[in-house]
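Supplementary notes (optional reading)

For those who missed the lab, this is the record we used. Protein: DivIVA domain-containing protein. Length: 197 residues.
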Amino acid sequence: MKHRGARTMSEFNTVGEKQLGYSCAEVDDFFAALADDFELLRSGGSRQDVATSTLIRQRSFSGQAGGYVPQEVDAALDRVEDRFVVFEKERVIAREEISAWNARLESDAELIMGRLNRPERQRFRRPSEKLTRGYFVGDVDALCESLKAHFLSDEELSPAMIREAVFSSATGEISYEETQVDAFLDRCVSLILAIKA
């Protein structure tokens, strides 16, 4: 995300001393590593353990009193993720040509639409234990309906619709298992970014 890949400690504000933010050390280390990977990829290089857009999207940080403002860090990660998707597309095309990239997008789109086309209240499994908290079915289904409408239209879909989604907590039959929903939405973001790349 920035040459946007690299941010330094001074570029993030901190929360108040008694508020919980993201660990400054973890954020600084992660962005320093991303900056190195960004330069490597920008110069056409590669490495087995180079960062991926998925790794960036799924990265979490420990809490720290007086740490970095989470919204600022999250926004920076979103920008970096967008840039790494472009690198990934370029690598696939260089190895396998554009047809391989398009085939991958079509396959992902089919899987996603298959899930979105399921009936309401039947899109995801319920938590395995009755008292385990999950996401409220109504909230998740509402997002799924919006995603389906956008995917079927000519409108450009922003990953912010997913990144900023908030679901109420619920248990039992009115809840979906969080991990399955999260994995699906992660795949949706990946597809949206790949289409835009």
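If you only remember one thing from this example: The first helix runs from residue 24 to 42.
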